[in-house]
Amino acid sequence: TISSTAEKAVYLVIFHLSFFMFVWSYWKTIFTSPASPSKEFCLSKADKEQYEKEERPEYQQEILRRAAKDLPIYTTTASRAIRYCDRCQLIKPDRCHHCSACDICVLKMDHHCPWVNNCVGFSNYKFFLLFLMYSLLYCLFVAATVLQYFIKFWTNELNAKFHILFLFFVAAMFFISILSLFSYHCWLVGKNRSTIETFRAPTFRNGPDKNGFSLGCSKNLREVFGDEKKYWLIPIFTSLGDGCNFPTRLVIMDPEQLAVSSQNEPAKSSGPNQSFPTRPLSESQNRLLTSDSQWVESVPEEENVKSGAKKHIIVSLES
Questions:
Q1: pLDDT tens digits, residue range 104-156?
Q2: Which residues, other chains included, contact 149 with Cβ-Cβ below 8 Å and sequence gap of 6+?
Q3: d(CA 30, CA 15)
Q4: Active-site residues: which are they?
Q5: CA–CA distance from 77 to each of 47, 83, 85 (Å)?
Q6: b/e for 32-66, b at 16 or more Cβ within 10 A?
Q7: What is the rounded CA–CA span in Å between residue 18 and residue 20?
């Protein structure tokens, strides 16, 4: 009949579309090279020679602090030291980690995935999320299609073949496992965290803060998928930023909170181990900083008085 023919045509379109998007996302996740820090984070030849000759850690840190004074770095190690990779011989940008499997420093590294034989980081994190999503939909479509035959088999209405039952079990098991992983990464995107940052919170000037890079759910989502929603479901690179510079909650912290933090922890905000820059990210470095209104989802009327002081803090930090 016409209805059955149209129904089969719809099934075929959905099947081929989901399979195509699944393969495309998987391909991009595998063959997209992990992004590495730019040359500005590498030590100069003179600093590198001086660093290698120096044996005292405190003087090595002095060399690194001098080299990192103009870099947009907000995080340090737990001991307040500059994050430096001896293997790659460069100062690590925020959220950058060295992958022992790839033997390179990866920007905004999430984890090294054996299923794609590649590091998941800034350059391919969107592709990895789409890969999980389309594989989830693909398994759901297969399981839903075979479900009717599976039910008929158990009610003795159909002598189903083994491969049909096996297909249903495989699709259902993969669906459940991928659903848990995809849900976890959706939660990470909403919190603007990587898997590494979930287990080890980044250290800022006021100590470890697992929410230090969170700008609110909508902005966190845009940071990964970009500004234009029409490209969100397509495996093409649309993430904001360059992977080296990330806006932090420090930029929009209320002036009263800054004053309280400086009074409570004066030793952490100044001293010989101070390694944070004196300015936040500029608007040209990340489109999420284009206006003050984009930083706050909703501003109560009683907080409008503080807006002038907040702008003064931001201008003074940039100067």
A1: 999 999 999 998 999 999 999 999 999 999 999 989 988 888 888 777 777 77
A2: 158, 160, 164, 168
A3: 22
A4: 113
A5: 21, 6, 12
A6: bebbbbeeebebeeeeeebbeeeeeeeebbbbbbe
A7: 5
